[in-house]
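Dear colleague,

Thank you for sharing your sequence with our group. We've completed the structure prediction you requested, and as agreed, I am returning the results in plain text so they can be pasted directly into your records. Please verify that the sequence below matches your submission; if there's any discrepancy, let me know and we will rerun it promptly.
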Amino acid sequence: MKQLFFNKHCINNKNNTYCLSVSTEPVPTNKIGTLAGLKVSTSTQSNRTMGLISIRDPKTNEVIRPNDTIAQQLIANLQVNQKLDGWKLSTNPVIDTVSGEETGMYWAELA
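Please find the predicted structure tokens below.
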């Protein structure tokens, strides 16, 4: 089972929902340089797989909202590249709600 790392907070304004973006490898640190006299940022790509954690309130079983206490505590406490012990990527792909096609990401679940 591959370790998961926190990537970023995701807020869906259309549905007013909150989830976490995760990956199987830490997000690389960006390098700053110049290209044709312009300041640019680059990063080394790795063979990581991205995923999402959809979080539900244990009391209501509803998907949490960005302003819910759980979401606010996660926003305050999670750091980029923090290991998420006890989580794994499932084999269930994340489906784009507009196109109906697989996104290349997978839903994460408790291990």
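Summary note from our side: The first strand starts at residue 5 and ends at 12.

Kind regards,
the structure core
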